[in-house]
Design goal:
By secondary structure, the protein is mostly helical. It has 11 helices and no strands. Helix 2 packs antiparallel against helix 3 and helix 5 runs parallel beside helix 9. It is globular.
Length: 278
C-alpha cells in the first residue's frame, strides 16, 4: 500500500498542476495552447505512473489487473473532468482544423505545446522515479534505460491496430461531442480504458501521438520512423477515416459530400408553385 500512497501523491500533484493552469488562464482564451500543454503534461505524467504499476506493481507489489484498470479509468476520468476541452491529444486538435473549426497557427501552437508537455512529463517522471520512494519505483528506476516497448507486433500490424482503435474512438467521440459532459466524459473514459486493455498485447492503443511519444518512443526495439508510422500515422489515418465516415467528406480538403446524399432542408409546397404559375 505504501507504493500506492506514493503514486496517489504523484497523481494528485499532476492534477493540481493542470487545474491551476486552467484556473489561471480561464480569462485568457487566446492562450489555449498553454492549456493543451498542461493537459498533455497531466495525461502523460499520470499514464507513465500507471504503466509503472502495470509493469512492476503487478508482480512486485501484488497488484492485480483489476487494480491497474481501475486506476487507469480514474486517471482518464479525472483528466476529462479537469482539462475539459483541452484534450492533450493532437488528433483531436487536427480534427478541429479539418472541420474548419480552428485556424492553422492555433493548431500548430496546440500540437507543439502537447508534445512539449509530453516531453517535460517524461523528465518529471524520471526524476520522480530516481527518488526511489518505494521498492516499485526503485525497480522502475533501474528499468528506465531499458524499458519495454508498447509495440509488441510488427509495424504493419501496429499501424492497423492504432488506425482501427482511433477510428472507433473518433466515431464515438464525434457522436458524443454535443452531449452533456456528465455523459460524455465517463463514456469516453470507459472507451479509452477498454481499448487500451484490449490492445495491450499489440500497441496498447494510445491513439494519441504526444502520449505515445512520452510513453514508448524512448524505449529500444524500433526506430523513430517505425514508431512514427504506428503511433503518429496510424492515429491520423484513423481520425481522417472517422471524419470521412461521419460527415461524408473532409471540409478542409474538399467540400463535396462523397458518401451521403444531401437533401434540401426546406421544400416549397405544391400550392405555392401553382399560384406562381398563374
Amino acid at each position: 500500500m505504501s507504493g500506492l500512497n506514493a503514486s496517489l501523491g504523484y497523481f494528485l500533484a499532476a492534477v493540481i498542476f493542470a487545474a491551476s493552469v486552467r484556473t489561471l488562464l480561464k480569462k485568457w482564451p487566446r492562450f489555449g495552447f498553454i492549456l493543451e500543454f498542461a493537459s498533455s503534461f497531466m495525461l502523460v505524467a499520470c499514464w507513465l505512473e500507471v504503466q509503472t504499476i502495470v509493469e512492476v506493481g503487478e508482480w512486485a507489489g501484488g497488484l492485480g489487473p483489476d487494480v491497474t484498470l481501475t486506476i487507469l479509468f480514474v486517471v482518464l476520468l479525472t483528466h476529462g473532468m479537469i482539462c475539459g476541452a483541452a484534450s492533450g491529444n493532437p488528433t483531436l486538435v487536427v480534427l478541429k482544423f479539418l472541420q474548419l473549426e480552428a485556424n492553422t497557427l492555433p493548431t500548430l501552437l496546440a500540437v507543439a505545446a502537447q508534445f512539449l508537455g509530453a516531453h517535460l512529463a517524461l523528465l518529471a517522471a524520471v526524476y520522480y522515479w530516481s527518488l526511489e520512494l518505494t521498492d516499485m519505483h526503485m525497480i522502475k528506476n533501474l528499468m528506465v534505460r531499458e524499458c519495454s516497448t508498447s509495440l509488441l507486433v510488427s509495424v504493419l500490424q501496429g499501424f492497423f491496430t492504432e488506425c482501427v482503435c482511433t477510428l472507433i474512438f473518433h466515431l464515438i467521440h464525434l457522436n458524443l461531442r454535443r452531449r452533456s459532459a456528465l455523459i460524455r466524459v465517463p463514456l469516453i473514459a470507459v472507451l479509452l480504458t477498454f481499448l487500451s486493455h484490449t490492445a495491450r498485447g499489440y500497441t496498447s492503443a494510445y491513439m494519441n501521438p504526444s502520449l505515445s511519444y512520452g510513453l514508448t518512443f524512448h524505449c529500444p526495439g524500433f526506430t523513430l520512423t517505425q514508431y512514427a508510422v504506428v503511433y503518429w500515422l496510424g492515429p491520423l489515418t484513423g481520425m481522417t477515416l472517422a471524419l470521412l465516415l461521419y460527415m461524408g467528406h473532409v471540409p478542409r480538403i474538399f467540400a463535396k459530400n462523397l458518401l451521403y446524399l444531401q437533401k434540401t432542408r426546406f421544400r416549397v409546397p405544391k400550392g405555392e408553385k401553382g399560384e406562381k404559375k398563374k
